[in-house]
Amino acid sequence: MDFTHLLADRTKTMGASAIREILKVVSQPGMVSLAGGIPAPESFPMEIMGELTAKVIDKYASGAFQYDLTEGFPPLRTALVTYLAQKGIQATADEIMIASGSQGVLDAVAKVLIAKGDKIAVEAPTYLGALQAFNPYEPEYVRMDTDDDGLIPESLEQVVQTHKVKFIYLVPTFQNPTGRTIPVARRKRIAEIVQQYEALLIEDDPYSALRYRGENLPPIRTFAPEHVLYISTLSKVFAPGLRIGFYVGPPAISRWMVIVKQGVDLHTNTFSQALAAEYLAGSYLDQQLPKIVNLYRPKQEAMLTALDKYFPNNFMWSKPEGGMFIWAEGPQGIDAEELYWKAIEKKVAFVPGKYFYTQPGEGLATMRLNYTMSDEATIDRAIKTLSEVIVKELR
Ligand code: PMP
């Protein structure tokens, strides 16, 4: 029996994910993948997981295995007060909500806010997972221009002047996919604009802790606390499989996000939350974070060095101070998806950048390169191979 006729109209419009289709070949044996977006398993604090587990059982007993509040496990929310304060975000435990990853937050945002046809302002390019969270609610996307310093404030202003947008979605630090970071002056200007136009900004910040050089920057939320829903996660600084995301937002919205979460999963996994609470409160994160940064820094340097050494000089690429991605762009006329298939033959994978745009025809010559999953020598070899493929194509 084929039950596809039962699918809701909106499900049919979602279609199969083209990017998922093309990335299927990445798991072939011998493939070096610069296509992933996941943390290195060596970044997980495996040596303390046993100790943390014992602590959780000792401290919370059956409470760590029981149903709990939809808002989140209270000791974790308390521990996050200090964590967020270090980023400059003032919030009480009651204002901090837990979700199943930042992805869970994006889903709740979409469910609570987006009605069919609503306009959402996004960077071009933007995080694909956010579009996947928003798409089922059938929004229309309004693109905002970016440059090497991320979102261009004038473009944001023009968008909010000319469109009635439901919200603005931004990844201001070490953005996925570009690795770009919005400098402080622009953050302040963006904050002024959202205040002036009484707009809501969704600030998605999974990567700011992964800084290999330079100074930490204040989240945009610190400049416009009433207009920004700030989202972060422990996925890149603890373990993504635990699915711990959190947010601080305008109370009128957070309240509804909690109500819709009840219908999704009642609450985030209590045991994971208890582990996370101990990880933060017991200062384990303070010890682990430098290890993660020291693990990724040389990988990123290896990729930047290899790009300098091998890539054709009509290519440009981002030089982020942290995060997990580098964004490369070739001359007009280059088709990165064609390069992708040629690179696959040579056992190197990356993500063609066009998938991170909401409008067809954009970003055809761009590619997202990830460096967290391979060692330095492999990264060097992969970039060399990729360059050879490109040079051959350009000829
Ligand atoms: N937002 C951005 C910008 C991301 O890159 C990711 C992870 N790839 C997420 C959200 C989701 O992360 P998680 O659900 O693991 O917190």
Automatic annotation (TrEMBL):
According to the UniProt entry, its GO molecular function terms are: pyridoxal phosphate binding; transaminase activity
The protein's required cofactor(s) are namely: pyridoxal 5'-phosphate
**Which CDD domains does the record match to this protein?**
AAT_like
Limits of the Aminotransferase class I/classII large domain: 62-385
One matching Pfam family: Aminotran_1_2
Task: List keywords of the entry alphabetically.
Answer: Aminotransferase, Pyridoxal phosphate, Transferase
Q: Per the UniProt entry, what are the Gene Ontology biological process annotations, in alphabetical order?
A: alpha-amino acid metabolic process
Tell me, how does this one assemble?
Answer: Homodimer.
- Family under the similarity heading: Belongs to the class-I pyridoxal-phosphate-dependent aminotransferase family.
- Please report the name of this protein according to its UniProt entry: Putative transcriptional regulator, GntR family
